[in-house]
Structures are given as C-alpha cells and as structure tokens.
Amino acid sequence: MAAAPDEVARTIIDNSLYMVLATADTTGRPWSSPVYFASAGYTDFYWVSSPDATHSRNIAGRPEVGIAIFDSSASIGTGQGVYLRARAAEIHAGETDPGLALFSRRSLAHGGSAWTPGDVHGEAGLRLYRAVADEHWILAKDGRPDHRIPVQLM
C-alpha cells in the first residue's frame, strides 16, 4: 500500500539535509540557492546565511519564496519532492533563540557544530532566517508529468 501524500512529504522533509530556496529580487529576477535547513512542524524552515548573499538580499526586498526539498540521488523517473510556497525573513537579535536552538540541534545531529547567538548577531557574518510555509505540494504518481497535488502538513 502506498504511503499517504502527507506522509510522503513529511518523510522527505525529515530525511533531507538541504532545501533549494528560490527567491527573486524586486524586479523579479530569479535566484536559487541550496541551504542546509532545520524545520519545525513542517511549516517553519530555518537556515543560516550571510545577509550579503544574493538570496538574503532578495528576501529583504521581496519576502515571497519558493522551496523545493528532494533526494537528488534518486534514480531518473523515481524521485519525489516537496514544493512549498512561503514568506521568509531574517530573524533579528532577541528573537533568534527558539529557531537557533532547533537549527543547532539538527546541525549537531548531522555532525555539524553547535550554534550560539554570537554566531548570528552583531559582527558575525551570518544571520538566522526563517521561511513560514503556507502551501505544500508533492508530485502525484498518477502517470501525468509534473502533476502536483496539495498536501496538508499544518
């Protein structure tokens, strides 16, 4: 028996290390970047980036983003992904603790380092970002090419 679409989406998110963040500048010029992420409740996605990175500058001017999460090692024709529509923003000093704790726990679980407020505030070259998803989709496995179906993860 095939897994329910929402379970497929949760499994993909849980098992993936990176998401592709699609942004656009204020004129609509697109940019995409893979970023290591941590998620909370399948709606809040956290990552750390330089505020000078193209995607960070784009988010500052246009917070609407698209996100794709998938296993890039899947064989041709067998892959499955989660597609999200979200709003993103830098999380400012004084508001980073919950997201940074989540990001740090996931980083440690994957062999990375612990993150502290000092790593994403003040003179640090990085900042913590969050995208809050309001829509999720996966590909339907019904034989139609690129037929996306909505899933409820909220």
Biggest sheet descriptor: 8 strands, antiparallel
Estimate the strand proportion: 35-45%
Kindly provide the radius of gyration, computed on alpha-carbon positions and rounded to a whole number of angstroms. 16 Å
Poorly predicted regions are none
Helicity level: 10-25%
Structural class by SSE content: alpha+beta
Average pLDDT confidence is 93
Distance N terminus to C terminus?
A: 24 Å
Summarize the structure.
This protein has 154 residues and is an alpha+beta fold.
Structural commentary:
The radius of gyration is 16 Å and the shape is globular. The longest helix has 13 residues, at 97-109. It has 3 helices and 8 strands; from the N terminus they run H-E-E-E-E-H-E-E-H-E-E. The protein has helices at residues 5-15, 54-61, 97-109, and strands at residues 18-24, 30-36, 38-40, 44-49, 64-70, 81-91, 127-139, 148-151. It is α+β, with helices and mostly antiparallel strands. The relative contact order is 0.22. Strands 1, 2, 3, 4, 5, 6, 7 and 8 form an 8-stranded antiparallel β-sheet that branches.
Write the layout of secondary structure elements.
Elements: H1 5-15, E1 18-24, E2 30-36, E3 38-40, E4 44-49, H2 54-61, E5 64-70, E6 81-91, H3 97-109, E7 127-139, E8 148-151
Antiparallel strand pairs: 1-2, 1-5, 3-4, 4-7, 5-6, 6-7, 7-8
Key terms:
8 strands; 8-stranded antiparallel sheet; 154 residues; 21% helix; alpha+beta
